Amino acid sequence: MNSMNNRVPDLGYLNLANGPAILYQLTPAQLVEAAIKRNEGVLSDSGALAIDTGKFTGRSPKDRFIVDDHVTHDNVWWGSINFKFDGAKFNALYNKMAKYLAGKEIFVRDSCACANEKYHIDIRVITETAYQNLFVHHLFIRPEVVNPESRPEWTIIAAPGFMADPEKDGTRQPNFSIISFSKKTILIGGTGYTGEIKKAIFSVLNFVLPHDKQVLSMHCSANTGSKGDTAIFFGLSGTGKTTLSADPDRGLIGDDEHGWSDYTIFNFEGGCYAKCSGLTAEKEPQIFSAIKYGALLENVNFFPGTRRVNFNNIDKTENTRVAYPLSNVSNAVIPSIGASPKNIFFLTADAFGILPPISKLTPEQAMYHFISGYTAKIAGTETGITEPKATFSACFGEAFLPLHPVEYAKLLGKKIKDHQVNVWLVNTGWTGGAYGTGQRMKLAYTRAMITAAMNGVLDHVHYHQHPMFNMMIPLTCPNVPDEVLDPKNTWANAENYEDNANKLATAFVNNFEKYAAYSTAEIINAGPNTVLAV
Ligand SMILES: Nc1ncnc2c1ncn2[C@@H]1O[C@H](COP(=O)(O)OP(=O)(O)O)[C@@H](O)[C@H]1O
Ligand SMILES: C=C(OP(=O)(O)O)C(=O)O
């Protein structure tokens, strides 16, 4: 197949020029057609392209490496996620990937990130498959004009069929995502999970924006009310960022990644990547109706003998997804920029049923919870998780942070104080007991609590303090039964609740030890007591 565009970018600078048929800047319709022809996927009855990513259906917990040999970036946080990979190994792996792609049909797309033009970065993404290119079309920002001759600032090469050989290539496993800040190049191999492409650029922006531009980068969704009142929703994967930001009464700014400059917040992306396990038109109408022609469904199943998606069938993975451009959402704000937030929600899916469904945090408690980044991982995005596990992921996104978490926390703390933002902790997880005994908080209740916080109703109700975690719990909230608001009331046995609350509080305190040296006494003291306050 020849390129359907007249001008084809010169990829000489990448050593990829020898042979590959370059399919440049194809339209979604052309990409859908190409994907079907190449047997990458089929059309669902709503016209979405349904593909399988194969073995890897989510992010792999140990896949990220950063190359930092020409050190201008001396403060990268080398932890278990950011694993130093040397420049010579990067070059060797790069050449191996180039060889692998030589002679193959490859898809090239120029796009960009950051809705605020002041922070725009141009990105060229080269993919082995048509569907990954469609993903990039949907998720990144689509520039009005592209110039194939210009060399973009960042380049991503993503080849799912290319596996590294850990022994020879120095990776930890055959699939990998490697970011070279010095070469401004990202190599992704051995995985067809499209989320890896967007999270790679997120990781880049998590360095560049705070470090070079004093802009806070955030793993959060955002929406705005009719009076321009912005709300942002931080949370780890599966805690509800996408679901709760999709609100028919508010404009959607974005579902996952944003920056906060002096007076505005802006989306990094141009689309959404929603989980679709259990999706129904009734519960999540905005997401459901965004699945139209050209949307990209990942790892879903059809009802037998049909092309109708069975969203309840999660045999391939719990992490079924759909990617679509923001323009598929009727009330999207484009360009996706909003005022500084009035309310911040920290979403946690507490599978232990301990944290209140909504509570108000002091600025110090907000810092404590932001640095802690607690959730309970349930089977989902991350490969290998099959049962709930308490997880602390700093800033609700540790896997994507090249800087020390306290750097982001400092920026957030200043902004919360400067803009007098209300901060709420929302447990979208379990109530009435832990996973297995209790049940997931009803989405309708969570939505009602968030609405009440945003429209100021919760400023005029009475509160009581959690005896162990010390946050303030409202006694009443419209459209939510009073007994749901206090988690202890929802457990069959109050003593059992207290024992388990103590265990969770202890896990918080133990986790925070590694941050104590970087925090103030006020922040440390804003953590839970490990014995019940009387
Ligand atoms: N009370 C609740 N609040 C938010 N999401 C809920 C709730 N109960 C169930 N869910 C489900 O949990 C999932 C949250 O996923 P999503 O919004 O995509 O998370 P994220 O964007 O943070 O990764 C959705 O499938 C949603 O339907
Ligand atoms: C896409 C991902 O994140 P989220 O679930 O937050 O959208 C991911 O972690 O792979």
Structural commentary:
This protein has three domains: 12-40 and 59-213, Phosphoenolpyruvate Carboxykinase, domain 1, CATH 3.40.449.10; 216-260 and 340-525, Phosphoenolpyruvate Carboxykinase, domain 3 (Alpha-Beta Complex); 272-328, Phosphoenolpyruvate Carboxykinase, domain 2, CATH 2.170.8. The chain has 14 helices and 30 strands. The chain is globular and about 70 Å long. The strands form seven sheets. Strands 11, 12, 13, 14, 15, 21, 22, 23 and 26 form a nine-stranded mixed sheet that branches. The chain has an eight-stranded mixed sheet with strand order 1-6-7-8-10-9-4-5, with helices on both faces. The model has no long low-confidence stretch (mean pLDDT 92). Helix 8 (363-372) packs antiparallel against helix 9. It has 534 residues and is α/β, with parallel strands linked by helices. It binds adenosine-5'-diphosphate (ADP) and phosphoenolpyruvate. The site of phosphoenolpyruvate (PEP) has 8 residues, from helix 5. Substrate binds at residues 59, 193, 199, 321. Involved in the gluconeogenesis. Catalyzes the conversion of oxaloacetate (OAA) to phosphoenolpyruvate (PEP) through direct phosphoryl transfer between the nucleoside triphosphate and OAA.
